């Protein structure tokens, strides 16, 4: 790698791309060339920084300056002042709403202070299209150590002890799921990644795939080794072209580096990943429906048992996990189960990623330790309700979830508390509504959604559709 | 089955390309969804005669192909407009007024969701979260994201594209 004095990190997430981050990149590159700085300054497009509300985001390293709402015409000033003269451009710094002071390092901002990034560790830090940057941040180290140790049972035990539960909604213990699949002998098994992200107001999985695709590849290889699968399949929504593109690049790079393919790290473990595309059916996020869809059929769910661990893809034992679940795996292996299980509540360990949106000041992608309260999320990270209005409710759990009112604001967020409160964790959509939102219309929205998206099998759905 | 008549209706290059796509997937019925994706990528939609051809190549009943095409929202049997318009009806956009944006497009384009206008210029669909909730409500026109929309802005956006013609 060249010896750059500065790195300009530029958000390539969907939100910032929509507000001209590609043009900003173009301008930076052109200006750097003009000033003969191309060898001193590197411009990197990263995944979503999370703070989409204040996008486009530009971050300068090594001094960690976090510029918000940058416009293409601001590039010249950033180069002239910051890069050449070493003076930060004050007017582009985030302004703390409490005291109107500028904050230049994101870790001091209300939005980031209470966050803890495990699954999103690399989003906004690395170029997702460059495997070397992933490797430089301990990438593929966990896979190497798992293969070197050559004891799938020990790795499964480690995941079990970490307390990791599935992030796709149901919260099933991941280690236990792997163990059940590992136990079933078969000539072929499959490890599957559920990237169908059905919640209509959420973009967590998409951001992980766009911002850090290698973490999913590494985790699937580890999972494949543990359960005895040599083939991994990612079921990804066709509506996510950028995520598909980044994942495909990452798979190709991993193959080039010998991290996918035959005899990985010189062991006798073979593993490769193929992509399968979803086609816009919410029900396909359910694992049996997903498997049918991957087989080329209509994505209709079927009764369990048989569970996928016994009879899954092509009737072979299969393990299905969510994107965010996988994103946690390499870190747990690198840092140990004790570390992971020290975060969170008694029965919900680690962190959860949420897509925080709706009538709130700081819309974005956040990752918080389990056990944080809704109030902290909405008022400290989210910066409170837009326009100083009153809070009415927060919707979690997607279409199968529920709305929580003021009296639940101090409830610590975890799987069990949200269910007890009448909602659920779901995959991580979190929509805040203010006093002007009509709850009847929100209910209608979800009902319309479930009617439209149901496979039409159960009686209730059929009767809503044809009263 | 009266396949021959239908095949004549299809342009030879379309037929050839569809056969090539099927061959690339070894005419494996398990790859039906991938075949449909690639065919729609290339053709823009999946008309009945193309579904019949795919069924024939993959050795499966046409009804099964149609069953899959009609099940998935992503597959369409009507050609898209030159500038496809998709309004985000994800939750975040909905609570920030996505429905009003959709209504404004309906009015401006004179079509309902799922339709294409008479001169084939615009088609209108709704979709779910596109990942730009920070800019809600949003819509995509020909792949470009328009954010922080208000119903009053729709007229100008449509005009911009009409003027390209
Ligand atoms: C109607 C329905 C929709 C679902 N949608 C999703 C989804 O979009 N993404 C997801 O990961 N899991 C979804 N699930 C859960 C999956 O069935 C499955 O539990 C999950 O992918 C397992 O992974 P995990 O243990 O890592 O969470 C859905 C379940 C149901 C019943
Ligand atoms: S898209 Fe840029 S911060 Fe989220
Ligand atoms: S809900 Fe519309 S972009 Fe997320």
Low-confidence region ranges of chain B: 1-7
Q: Kindly state the percentage of residues in helix of chain A.
A: 25-40%
Q: Hey, which two chains have the biggest interface?
A: A-B, 47 and 38 residues
Largest sheet of chain B: 4 strands, mixed
What topology, given as strand order, has the largest sheet of chain B? 2-1-3-4
Helix-strand string of chain B: HHHHHEHHEEEH
Strand content of chain B: 5-15%
Mean pLDDT of chain B: 91
Biggest sheet of chain A: strands side by side, in what order? 12-11-15-13-14
Total strands of chain B: the figure is: 4
Provide a descriptive summary of the structure in words.
The complex is a heterodimer of chains A (467) and B (165). Chain A is of the alpha/beta class and 467 residues long. In chain A, the strands form four sheets. In chain A, strands 12-11-15-13-14 form a five-stranded mixed sheet, with helices on one face. The longest helix of chain A has 16 residues. Chain B is α+β, with helices and mostly antiparallel strands. Chain B has eight helices and four strands; from the N terminus they run H-H-H-H-H-E-H-H-E-E-E-H. Chain B has a four-stranded mixed sheet, with helices on one face. In chain B, helix 2 runs antiparallel to helix 3, helix 2 packs across helix 4 and helix 4 packs across helix 5. The complex binds flavin mononucleotide and FE2/S2 (inorganic) cluster (FES) (2 copies).
Q: Which key features would you list for this structure?
A:
heterodimer, A: 467 residues, five-stranded mixed beta sheet, four-stranded mixed beta sheet, 37% helix, B: 165 residues, alpha+beta, 8 helices, binds flavin mononucleotide
Question: What does this entry show, briefly?
Answer:
Chain A is of the alpha/beta class and 467 residues long. Chain A has 18 helices and 15 strands. The longest helix of chain A has 16 residues, at 241-256.
